[in-house]
Design goal:
Blueprint: E1 2-4, E2 9-14, E3 17-23, E4 26-27, E5 36-45, E6 61-65, E7 71-73, E8 84-86, E9 90-91, H1 94-103, E10 109-113
Parallel strand pairs: 1-10, 4-8, 7-9
Antiparallel strand pairs: 1-2, 2-3, 5-6, 5-10, 6-7
């Protein structure tokens, strides 16, 4: 998996072929998404877990990265996708993060590049 911060896209790659590509929201200027190579260490579903049936800030799913405190997750603010809005995490539309989760497992390599 490759996250291209300049394009604000996450691409699921097999070999040299892009299988799927999704728009993402990334870190703000002061809380930038960290560049590097990581792995997915966990997956935590967040069904409508807030009082009143509202989505959590992590949307419907969190996939934690090997860099503690950072992850790929859904959002309760879909208008934030494509923008510099997070505290360093990678935000996706809920349907996209759920789709991605079906194609990747714990240990999947995640390359985040500028």
């Amino acid at each position: 998996m490759i996250v291209d911060l300049s394009d604000r896209r996450l691409s699921l790659v097999e070999g040299n072929r892009v299988m799927k590509s999704y728009p993402v929201g990334i870190g703000k200027v002061l809380t930038q998404t960290p560049v590097g190579t990581y792995t997915i260490v966990n997956k935590v579903p967040y069904p409508y877990s807030r009082p009143g049936g509202k989505l959590s800030p992590y949307g419907t799913l969190w996939m934690g990265l090997s860099r503690p405190g950072y992850g790929i997750h859904g959002t309760n603010k879909p208008a934030s996708i494509g923008k510099r809005v997070s505290k360093g995490c990678i935000r996706m539309y809920n349907r996209d993060v759920e789709d991605l989760s079906r194609h990747v497992g714990i240990g999947t390599r995640v390359i985040i590049r500028p």
